[in-house]
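Now read the record:
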Amino acid sequence: MTSSRSGGRPLVPAYLSTGGVARPTRNSLERLSVLTGGGGPLPSGLPAAQQSLLQALDGGSLTVVEAAALLQLPVSAIRVLAAALIDQGLVSARPPVPFAALPDRDLLKRVADGLRALKL
């Protein structure tokens, strides 16, 4: 079943991709939390959606939003899937960098300008 509203994407309720689980086991996962895969072999017996998330991470890192876009699932479903994988020790997560902790843009521009001047 498809709809023109969804751009040809099947309209599947999010709880079906999470095995009927509606809420994540942890509330610490935000949209910009960074998920990092373990990089090891995929364990057997995982649901298909969890396997897909592990394959998408493949030893690398993605934010929750990036994983949702890549797997074409709602952010809420990725939160549930990631929380289950974190509980199993297959994925780690870290909170996003707070805006106040980001480097000053003016300082970065001055450093880049200085490096360009050294290169000449």
Remarks:
- Residues 105-119 form the longest helix (15 residues).
